[in-house]
Amino acid sequence: MEMETKVTVHDAMTSKVVTVGPKISVTEAAILMNQIKVGSLVVKSNSEPEGLITESDIIRKVVSKNLKASDITIGQIMTKNLISIEPGRELNEAARLMAKNSIRRLPVVNGGALVGILTSTDVMAVSPELTEILVENARITENQVGYPTGDRPVPGTCEACGNFEDYLDEVDGKYLCEECKEDLEGE
Predict the structure, then answer these.
(1) Which terminus of the chain has fewer Cβ atoms in its 10 Å neighbourhood, N or C?
(2) Element (H, E) at 182
(3) Closest CA to 43 of 62, 65, 64, 17
(4) Residue 40 CB: number of other CB atoms within 10 A?
């Protein structure tokens, strides 16, 4: 009798989550993100996460409005009312939750305490077969927010060579890495 093993959120999540308080400035957050090379920070005052700040938040809510980043706290611009998941849940459930809510980062909470973070990159690295769920979500989100198809690169598995890449471009309805895109365009 074969025993079926399920991949859980705990198997894929990052346990060492970088957290900050809501009162630090956007400048301080950006410096920290750059120093430790992460794209987001979880905001918390106690054990439970209360918000999330991403590079995209900084660009859309501060830089694009020409606001002074040192005068704004991350508590003012962070994403609130976070959707989270428990570490024992199945990874495919997490991928569907992320796709359904158009999010790429999912705080992992156990008994109200932050124990990790799960990113779309984590999901794809541990369970490549779930890539299609996340790639399809990227296509849907791209069309919903007004980006012309193919103008915004997304992470995922190249549909031509099968390699995981941080940036894929849509070409003729397929997501391709730069090398496969050049090969196709060179024909």
Answers:
(1) N
(2) helix 178-186
(3) 17
(4) 20
Pick from 44, 134, 130, 38: which is nearest to 84 by CA? 44
Contact (CB, 8 A) for 12 and 127: yes
**How would you classify the pairing of strands 51-54 and 105-110?**
unpaired
Compute the half-sphere exposure of residue 178: CA atoms within 13 Å on the CB side of its CA.
4
Sign of CA dihedral 130, 132, 133, 134: positive
C-beta separation of 28 from 69 below 8 A? no
Q: Which of 16, 60, 17 is nearest to 42 (CA)?
A: 17
Q: How distant is the alpha carbon of residue 169 from its chain centre? A: 17
Per-10-residue mean pLDDT, the chain, length 187 = 69 91 95 93 86 93 94 94 92 85 90 90 77 58 48 64 72 78 75
Q: Which two tokens stand for residue 52?
A: 């999330």
Q: What are phi and psi of 54, to 5 degrees?
A: -125, 165
- Structural domains in the chain, CATH included, are 9-126 (3.10.580.10), 150-187 (no CATH)
